[in-house]
Write a structure and sequence with these properties.
It is a single chain. The protein is an alpha/beta fold. The protein has 14 helices and eleven strands. β10 and β11 form a beta hairpin.
């Protein structure tokens, strides 16, 4: 098993960016590589178990309860001791008006490392994971490239501005819907506060890790600066124990203006690492007035002998280059952006790349889009032989939202 966390030759604080990953990216330090795969897999779990079937009553919701999520996506194997438990699912409203119901979409979760996971990681890790774009309405939010002030986060600061579409998703709520009565912002911040105070009261070492893909990286970046700006990384009863907040961003667009970037970089305990595929256009969007934050690890689809060549599918290859599993495949095998060598070394199975796509060369002999529910959740009546869509899991609304 590849090392990470407690068994690493580097302390977890360095793996989480305390020294801005000095001498760890080029060449890619082995434990840093596994760290990225670890957090990328946790983000991919959302996409794997997101109910995208519009004919289902559970459309736009998770397919499994919180206590089963990581097991169902294969992250609780004997070879993976880095265990977490989900403490909260959180949601965003999707429609322009509250008259369109149901107005809720599962966008992520908060999880905390278990005692076993904490022992292996070297600290109690509070993880906030944000998924990427899943439907047309979110894509329209992605394409809004106007900047807006963010006084919900920065109070009287009217100079710092954020992409309107992502800021709206982050802070919008729907007073009618029990899932989104609180904004995603409030849902996440309340849970982070709860967990930080809980484990600080036990005198534990704590980290906050915020991870996302594509649109989720924009929301994760905003969320991380919000946590830092408003002191959610500081225990209520132990202000001297502020914890490190780290963003791991896969395929991140530019999120906000120069003032946002400067605010982000001004914090000693806030770090960000972006993983960028050289053929992916999203990190260059929006093209003007917007800035990235943090450090960057550049990878390149064309270095992998397993992926379909660009000329074989043209724009399709570019779309595949944006996908999270492609990024994790490249992180696993890259030997440097200028190197033609590629060595997976058993770090991440190639079959995962074809989970939801047709990205691998035919000689890999891996079926395309193999991650599907049996019979697409259709079940047969044992008496008359007829078929119907099975009743899928519908999570209960967050309890504290109902009492607001």
């Amino acid at each position: 098993m590849h090392t990470m966390g407690r068994n690493s030759s580097r302390p977890w604080t360095e793996l989480s960016g305390e020294t801005n990953w000095k001498d760890m990216l080029y060449p890619l330090y082995e434990d840093r590589r596994m760290y990225l795969i670890h957090y990328g897999d946790r983000v991919q779990a959302i996409g794997n178990e997101f109910n995208g079937r519009k004919e289902s009553e559970g459309y736009d919701l998770p397919r499994y309860p919180m206590d089963k999520l990581f097991h169902k996506v294969g992250l609780e194997t004997a070879s993976n001791p880095f265990r977490y438990e989900v403490t909260r699912y959180f949601y965003v409203p999707m429609h322009k008006t509250i008259l369109q119901q149901p107005d809720r979409s599962w966008v992520g979760y908060v999880a905390v490392s278990t005692d076993k996971g904490t022992a292996m990681l070297g600290r109690r890790d509070i993880l906030v994971a944000w998924r990427g774009t899943m439907d047309l309405l979110e894509a329209k939010s992605d394409l809004r490239d106007d900047l807006v002030t963010a006084t919900d986060i920065f109070e009287d600061d009217t100079d710092t501005k954020i992409h309107t579409g992502w800021y709206d998703l982050y802070r919008k709520n729907d007073i009618i819907n029990l899932y989104t009565k609180l904004s995603a912002r409030d849902q996440v911040l309340r849970e982070v506060r709860k967990q930080v105070d809980l484990y600080a009261s036990k005198d534990e070492t704590i980290s906050i890790t915020v991870a996302g893909h594509s649109m989720g990286t924009a929301l994760a970046t905003i969320n991380a600066l919000d946590i830092m700006t408003n002191g959610y990384n500081v225990p209520s009863d132990h202000p001297e124990k502020a914890c490190l907040v780290t963003v791991f961003a896969f395929a991140s667009p530019r999120v906000a203006d120069k003032n946002f970037q400067e605010n982000f970089l001004s914090y000693e305990k806030l770090r960000a690492l972006r993983v960028t595929n050289a053929i992916d256009f999203v990190p260059f969007f929006p093209p003007t007035r917007y800035y990235h934050v943090g450090e960057q690890l550049m990878v390149e689809s064309r270095t992998s002998p397993y992926l379909r060549p660009l000329y074989s599918s043209l724009t399709g290859a570019l779309e595949l280059g944006h996908q999270l599993e492609t990024h994790l495949h490249l992180v696993a095998g890259t030997q440097g952006i200028d190197s033609k060598e590629f060595d997976l070394g058993g770090r991440h199975g190639i079959a995962l790349v074809n989970k939801g796509w047709d990205a691998l060369n035919d000689d890999c002999q891996i079926p395309a889009q193999w991650w599907v529910a049996k019979n697409k959740n259709m079940v047969q009546n044992g008496n008359d032989g007829s078929w119907r869509l099975a009743a899928l899991y519908i999570p209960p609304p967050p309890e504290d939202d109902q009492n607001e």
